[in-house]
Design brief:
Length: 195
Amino acid sequence: MNDWCPSPANLPGSHMGAAQSLVAPLVVKSVDYLNRVHKVSRDGSDPDIVDFATAFLKDLQRRSMPFFVHCYVRSNAQQETLYSQGVSKARAGQSPHNWGMACDIVHFGRFWELTQKEWAVVGEIGKEAARRRNIKITWGGDWRFYDPAHWELTDWKKRITHYPVEDFRTAFAKARAQGLSKFLWQGREYTTELA
């Protein structure tokens, strides 16, 4: 067995071709790819999601599959934009990305444009990385709202009670200080106009 191949025990025969189509050894060694891997900010990310993503990317790179984390944390405004575009089912504050407990991992060059079999290969590798690290992960490729680039900590909603949540008064004051006429708080839009 070649060292880049996922274990045949985990992949049906028809998925071996899909795995091979993801391999790009020269890309994994390229400066552009390595720069992209290190470009994403981890600020505000839960250490467990960073640990998972780091192990997952190493597994993919060892197989010469050039993937990178597209994002960990999203602001409420970014989340609302994705929701309004239909890209996400979660509103601001309802996504694990808003709490730093998720990551989107995509292919370098093809990004989200992989076949379902190719994503299945990636899914198996990610699940194995999570098992080895003993981190409970949920994969968006297993959802009815198919989001195969998305990985989140399974218990993220329980964990957010440990994080400070900005109260309305603070959010309002911050928006006024920034000169905004509108702002989002807990997924709803408010105005900074005083009555």
